[in-house]
Amino acid sequence: MCGIAGIFSYRPTGGQVDAAELSRITSAQARRGPDAEGFWFSGDRRIGFGHRRLSIIDLSEAANQPLTSHDGRYVIVFNGEIYNYRALRQELEAAGSSFITHGDTEVILEAWRHWGAAALGRLRGMFAFALFDCLDKKLLLARDPYGIKPLYYSDDGHVLRFASSVKALHLGNLPTNDLDPVGLTGFLLMGSVPEPYTIHKAARSLGAGQFLAVENGIGGEQRQYASIAEIWRLGAAGGTTVSTDEAMEHIAVAVRDAVASHLVADVPVGAFLSAGIDSGALVGLVSGLVATPMTTITLGFSDFRGAATDETALAEEIAKRYRTRHQTHWVSDADIQRSIPDIFAAMDQPSLDGLNSWLVSKAAHEAGLKVVLSGVGGDELLGGYGHFQSLPVLGKRLAAVHAVPFLARAATGFARILSGWGIVPPKAPALAAFGDDMAALYFAQRGLFMPWEIADLIGCDMAREGLAHLPVPAFLAGNLSSNVDDFTRIAALESTNYLRNQLLRDSDWASMDHSLELRTPLVDATLLRSLSPILSHCPPGWRRKLGLAAAPSPPLPESVLRRPKSGFALPMARWMAEVADLDSWRQFPALRHPACHWSRRMAGTLLARFAPELIQP
Questions:
Q1: For residues 37 and 60, what is the distance between their CA atoms, to the nearest angstrom?
Q2: Which of the listed CATH numbers 3.60.20.10, 3.40.50.300, 2.60.40.10, 3.10.560.10 matches domain 2-226?
Q3: pLDDT tens across 377-411, in order?
């Protein structure tokens, strides 16, 4: 796990790379890689790479980056882990390749030399890397199918710059620092900035499952080599109805394989442990795969001690069941007040989530860990959210309303009036306005602000431009197929929106701020290819998570299965009233209504921090 950076002057008008600029971008990512720093420049100084390393696999200096191939043709900087690198290495050695290091970075180099672009589909793991072909003067940027690892770039038509974070990228000589109305609008609509946008016009995110090739003198276009939505679609189309026993067995085998693959490391691997099924099952599976007990970390809030939202007692029960070295870290209000400025400083783009990830990552770092497993992604994979059941029912009820155009328009107008008076929630008009399509229902569930509210926060002109690029709810659906069952469609929407743009991105910046590598065994394209045909054809009404709960030996205790799903609770409303750093939402008149939800006020606070020029004097 690392921080990568680079500058490619791909047109003659771009000139040579400024070493000081590359050093600024790279050094800004020191927390992502505190173990080593390295640079490489081509002979003509038209391209340079920078790297900050967090040593996890092959701890020797020989594995430091940038790394050059044996023949000197290819150079790479890589952020992530390739979990099947040993199997790929054996295959490449059989084909004639030789290796100097014992890590996964060199395997990517040789895989590209041997298979070209086809190598991307053979990598199992989380990755974002840049590879330069010194012979053809061609730069490749690539990112893993789920988008677990970030990669941002700026291209002014002459020079391309890239980095692992937006903030680091903006330490370079970018053409503009102007705000992007599309990125800001996306944040207000969903609580996170949807890729490929950022809140700045000059910076873009390389899409999940995409690569970008830039040749000497020629700019490039993003190309898709893998699609999570397409994997879900193919699974639904190719699967057949299975029994409960068959589904449980298949889930257990596939998840056990995913967990085993994610344990590859030359340092100890720990785990975040809550009272939920996802993290508990992962810990249980690890206990059956390793000889040495793993370290598990649970976060507790003093405010919740002994309450229904307190997860610590049940987490400790799970830890005892699977004989882990368990640590419970309690967080007080004073801890939060001290941490808020640091959390905001670490946040790369505005996001409503991530505070809990930052706090538990801090605890893991203080416990001496460099790698942890997280249960993130389990709800998206296995239908753990309640709206997997409620949205299809709601869609059927709304179908009658939308069958009569006049009735739908009248209901929308009436709902907006009631919402303005605070009688119904602000999202209520969306149900009448956007139809009964699953993407519309999903927006009503996940959306933060409604399109007609955006102008009150960023102004009419910016809102108009942003909504033109992000039509609601169409932008959420992307290229998802509508010819699939409800479970598959919701799972694909969750995987390509909330999981990708919020949970995974927040997990990255929050853990990396503590030099901690966070691994996600349940967010794995190989696992999804195995399970999607099964998950789309399970018996009606069956809880797919029961298969995960039964996967460890012994299975998770009944106390975990009986516990109502509550998510990771934070006393956000009270913190916002007490912590001075969180009260800048008051600068937006639209957020001063007494009934305004804390999540909207948090969005205002983040907007004021990341885009202070929006505040009217």
A1: 13
A2: 3.60.20.10
A3: 999 999 999 999 999 998 888 887 777 777 767 77
